[in-house]
Amino acid sequence: MIMETKYVHLHSEGRHLGDDHDLWTTGFYDPEGKWHPESDHSTEEEATERARYLNGGNDSSEVERLQAEVKELKELLMDYASSDANMMAPNGSTRIRTAAILKRLTE
Q1: Where do the domains of the chain lie?
Q2: Which of 1-5, 16-20, 74-78 has the lowest mean pLDDT?
Q3: CB atoms within 10 A of CB 96
Q4: 3-state secondary structure string, 33-48?
C-alpha cells in the first residue's frame, strides 16, 4: 500500500517553549509517527505556504505575479486595440481580429 506524504507545520521553537524566538518547521510524519523536518521558517504564514506548496498547492506569490502579468498584458492589448495605428491599419481583418480580442477582454 502506497501512502501519500502530507506535509504539515508545527511551532518547533518559541517563547511558549522558553526560547528567545519563534520558529515554525514544515515537515511530515512517517507511518510510524516519526517527524521528518523539511524546512524552518520565522513565521507561521511562511511555514503554511511551504506546506501548501509541498502538498501540491499553488505558491500564492507566483499566482499573484502571474495575475499581475495577465493584467498588464490585458491593458497593453486594450491600449493597442483602441490606438489610432490599429484603427488605421489597411488590412480590415487586423481591425476585426483586434476588435474580437478587445470584446473578449472586456467581457
Answers
A1: 8-57, 62-105
A2: 16-20
A3: 10
A4: CCEEEEEEECCHHHHH
When the pLDDT of each residue in the chain is averaged and rounded to a whole number, the result is 77
Neighbours of 27 (CB within 10 A): 20
CA distance 35 to 32: 9
Sign (positive or negative) of CA dihedral 33, 54, 26, 47 = negative
CB 6 within 8 A of CB 55: yes
- pTM for the predicted model, two decimal places: 0.51
C-alpha cell at 2: 502506497
- Which amino acid appears at position 97 of this protein? R
Per-residue confidence (pLDDT) for residue 22, from 0 to 100: 84
CA dihedral 28, 31, 35, 37 (to 10 degrees): -30
